[in-house]
Specification:
The chain is mainly alpha-helical. The chain has 2 domains: about 10-275, ABC transporter involved in vitamin B12 uptake, BtuC; about 290-430, Arc Repressor Mutant, subunit A (Orthogonal Bundle). About 70% of the residues lie in helices and about 0% in strands. It has 18 helices and 2 strands. It has helices at about 10-35, 40-60, 65-90, 95-120, 130, 140-160, 160-170, 170-175, 180-220, 225-250, 255-275, 280-310, 310-315, 330-335, 340-355, 375-400, 410-415, 420-430; strands at about 355-360, 370-375. A two-stranded antiparallel ribbon has the order 1-2. α2 (about 40-60) runs parallel beside α4 (about 95-120) and α12 (about 280-310) packs across α15. It is elongated and about 95 Å long.
């Protein structure tokens, strides 16, 4: 055990318990602020409690949380009411109203704190901890208050979870079914103010918004379910609070609140980078896999086009049979399409393992392959891509009235995304066409010639699609 870690220090456990309770409670409320895109509102409330704290001190002449927090609560509610009133009764938009209220309340609080410091003497000592937080000043009585408020917040959210979910994701539907929309918003506002009020001593009014929003933002990368997101946000907030508190305890003269926010930010960045579905790394992996898939499919389509050029009657005459893949070298494939040589070689090796390409030897005892040839399965896969490409070009020209010379790039992108179900529906919508807008035959679903009603007498253009 490290020498600096004194587990028998009661102050350590007091700070850990207090910061974990405050962090988890704030994260639960912050999830709904995050989902409703009200992050700035949380910041405004956090800054707006400062004048309430100052006035409560002037009236009660005490730095006890029991005296200061009611003033902070009233001030925070007044700030929320002001934001709502300004946005509803003027042409000022909600974000501007939020910034206006934040500035006015915080400026007033700074003025009051300055006046108190100059006129109240030693009685005001320690009052400035609400600006930047001072978790080391948590007392046992404060811990009981934190636990009570955290339990109240958790119970309220559990009881009204269904209503809060609807309020966050579909407020218009909530109004339409007669849900008490204003009452629910008021309840959520009260819970937000309560979370801010108990958190200002830990991280201060300046950093309180980060304690509200950062755990929710980190949790969102891991799940799509609200219940799971609430639990994850609370857990992330608890871990960040513990980490920040331990750093502050281990390193002399290090503030707890800022270190908690640094730890939470590190967890949020880790979630952003490594979350399995929405993380940056997972997205990069999926994007790379998709690009490799496109490269392989383009190789197969190149073999189909070569087969089509070799025997155009197979693609243009119904019932003409299956085309045969020509043997193409790497250089010939590079001439046909702007492949990246390294990517092309990797794609051909992968296709060979999948049984879609096969190496062709120049002689029975040759060491290296003379080229590559698509197997029947590979040729059918290439024909399907050409088929989707040409169907989509026809759809864009016939249904959307786009010029035929403007549809190729769109078809190049969509051909890799169309599912077999959409392919069948697309063909039905187009009445089973035989040729695309350029006169090229549309391959049959099994990779042989076209079928259906002939819509054009233009000559075949084997390089199209």
């Amino acid at each position: 055990m490290p020498q600096w870690l004194h587990l028998d220090d009661p102050n350590l456990w007091l700070v850990l318990a207090g910061t974990v309770l405050v962090g988890a409670a704030s994260a639960l409320v912050g999830v709904f602020a995050f989902l409703r895109r009200r992050a700035l509102v949380g910041d405004a409330v956090a800054h707006s409690v400062l004048p309430g704290i100052a006035l409560a001190f002037v009236v009660g002449q005490s730095r006890s949380l029991a005296v200061l927090l009611p003033g902070a609560f009233i001030s925070g509610l007044l700030a929320l009411w002001s934001i709502d009133a300004i946005a509803r009764n003027s042409r000022i938009k909600p974000d501007a109203a939020t910034g206006l209220v934040l500035s006015v309340f915080f400026g007033t609080g700074i003025l009051l704190m300055t006046w108190i410091q100059r006129s109240q003497g030693a009685a005001q000592a320690g009052l400035d901890r609400f600006l930047f937080g001072q978790a080391a000043g948590i007392l046992p009585t404060d811990l009981y208050l934190f636990a009570a408020v955290a339990a109240f917040l958790a119970v309220c959210i559990a009881i009204a979870l269904k209503e809060f979910r609807l309020l966050s994701f579909d407020p218009e539907f909530a109004r339409a079914i007669g849900m008490p929309f204003r009452s629910l918003e008021g309840l959520l506002a009260v819970l937000t103010v309560l979370a801010v009020v108990i958190g200002v001593q830990t991280v201060g009014v300046v950093l309180m918004a980060a304690l509200l929003i950062t755990p929710a933002a980190a949790a969102r990368f891991w799940t799509d379910r609200l219940g799971t997101m609430l639990l994850l946000a609370a857990g992330i907030a608890a871990m960040g609070s513990m980490a920040g508190s331990m750093v502050s305890y281990a390193v002399p003269r290090q503030p707890t609140g800022p270190w908690i926010i640094v730890a939470l930010s590190a967890l949020a960045l880790a979630s952003m980078a490594f979350a399995p579905r929405r993380g940056w790394l997972a997205q990069r992996i999926r994007l790379a896999a998709y690009r490799r898939k496109i490269a392989r499919e383009n190789v197969l389509k190149a073999f189909w086009h070569a087969a089509e050029e070799q025997r155009p009657e197979v693609a243009s005459v119904p019932g003409a049979g299956h085309p045969t893949s020509p043997v193409l070298s790497e250089a010939q494939l590079l001439e046909r399409r702007a492949f990246v040589p390294r990517s092309l070689r990797r794609s051909m090796r992968k296709l060979a393992r999948q049984g879609l390409l096969q190496a062709v030897q120049a002689q029975p005892d040759a060491v290296s392959a003379a080229g590559w040839q698509a197997t029947p399965e590979g040729l059918r896969a290439g024909a399907r891509l050409a088929r989707i490409h040409r169907l989509w070009e026809l759809y864009l020209t016939e249904k959307l009235r786009i010029a035929p010379d403007h549809v190729h790039d769109d078809a190049e992108a969509i051909e890799h995304l169309i599912t077999p179900e959409l392919e069948a529906e697309l063909e039905a919508v187009l009445d089973h066409p035989e040729r695309d807008p350029h006169g090229s035959a549309i391959p049959r679903p099994n990779g042989t010639g076209s079928r259906g009603k002939d819509r054009t007498e233009k000559p075949i253009n084997p390089k199209a699609g």
